[in-house]
């Protein structure tokens, strides 16, 4: 019985929070929708390539140490 009271309270609290936050979130969404997002300065390929080179170097060193 105690578990059902807790889950009922949690459901009511969640619904109350959702109803209260709905206008706040709608205003925030409307305020942010006017300007487009800026273009990314770096697409990450340089970082990915650097990580790949480091992994290849690590594989080369491990291969040398094992043989």
Structure description:
It contains 2 helices and no strands. It is an all-alpha fold and 67 residues long. The model has no long low-confidence stretch (mean pLDDT 79). The longest helix has 31 residues. It has a domain of 34 residues.
Number of DSSP helical runs = 2
Low-confidence parts: none
- What spatial form do the alpha-carbon principal axes imply? elongated
- Average pLDDT taken over every residue: 79
Order of H and E elements: HH
First and last CA, distance: 67 Å
Class by helix and strand content? mainly alpha
> What fraction of the residues are assigned to beta strands by DSSP?
under 5%
Number of strands: 0
Biggest sheet, open or closed, and with what strands and sense? none
Rg from C-alpha positions?
A: 26 Å
The level of helicity is over 70%
